[in-house]
Amino acid sequence: MTQDINQDGQLTPADEQNLPVAIHKSGFVNIVGNPNVGKSTLMNDLVGERISIITQKAQTTRHRIMGIVNTPEYQIVFSDTPGVLKPKYKMQEGMLAFSEGALTDADILLYVTDVVEDPTKNADFLAKVAKETIPVLLVINKIDLLKDNTELEKIVDRWKELLPKAEIFPTSAKEHFNVQALMQRIVELLPAGEPYFGKDALTDKPARFFVTEIIREKILLNYDKEIPYSTEVIVESFEEKENSIHIMAVIYVERDSQKGILIGRQGAMLKRVGTESRKDIEKFFGKSVYLELFVKVEPNWRNRENKLRQFGYIE
């Protein structure tokens, strides 16, 4: 076709209408796997923002958290999910439901493992992944812990037996090794489609959610044994002004003894959690923050359906 050019050397409007239209791509990329394999670190690296909290403790992620990557050509909606586990509480049943639900609504599935975990762990869930018809990308994380390629080759061969249809990506999310190659493959596999969220969206979660996650992260980092797992954080007041935010949050525990440990002698431990949380919340929002923390006892909340519904584990 001959193209008409105007006096300024530009295509005429009629010819511009005949040019090929770039196809926009969009899709849901869900991240699943066992606890402590680095799913949240990988999610944050792929998104380029600190969306999910990260600690060395298992069950750090309790909810399904979306992180959205936007360019003019595509929108990727990543979902970080709780680690797959055998439920001991109704709360953990809700966490497992988040992970299993991620198998049903994904366009691309990232199954994350690492170089130290037993590949047969939670075999039932792995069997479901093996039956998936959508693209499955197997991410073998933490390869920086290996001594040589021989060890990696053995691990890769084992996973080829378990997930023969999956594409394998050895990575180190912590060191940002091979994450860009993984991202490029995700973009290639994205289906054509319009954006699911606004192009300026970073996540589907409200501001209050990230406040609770930051506080819960500090609890995970400052306490051992049962305390971090028996707590839940709820923001009861979030008053935002132009340059400041006033937040009142409640930390729920299951027993009076846990409340005493959480508060600490003369309130010292709770003060530490509050100070560390406030600093990170200020970084997150870019504003000064006044944070008030309270501790309340809610017996056996991890097994009470009404409380789990209130805390967002049951829809």
Give a structural overview.
- By secondary structure, the chain is of the alpha/beta class.
- Helices cover 34% and strands 22% of the residues.
- The protein has ten helices and nine strands.
- It has helices at 13-17, 39-47, 90-101, 123-130, 149-162, 179-189, 207-222, 256-263, 268-285, 305-310, and strands spanning 25-33, 65-70, 74-80, 108-114, 136-141, 167-170, 232-240, 244-253, 288-297.
- Strands 2-3-1-4-5-6 form a six-stranded mixed sheet, sandwiched between helices.
- The protein starts with 12 loop residues before the first helix and ends in a 5-residue tail after the last helix.
- The model is unreliable at 1-9 (pLDDT under 50).
Key descriptive features of the protein:
alpha/beta, three-stranded mixed beta sheet, globular
Strand content: 15-25%
Please identify the oligomeric state. single chain
User: Which stretches of 5+ consecutive residues score pLDDT under 50?
Assistant: 1-9
Q: Which class best fits the helix and strand makeup? A: alpha/beta
How does the major sheet shape up? 6 strands, mixed
Residue share in helices?
25-40%
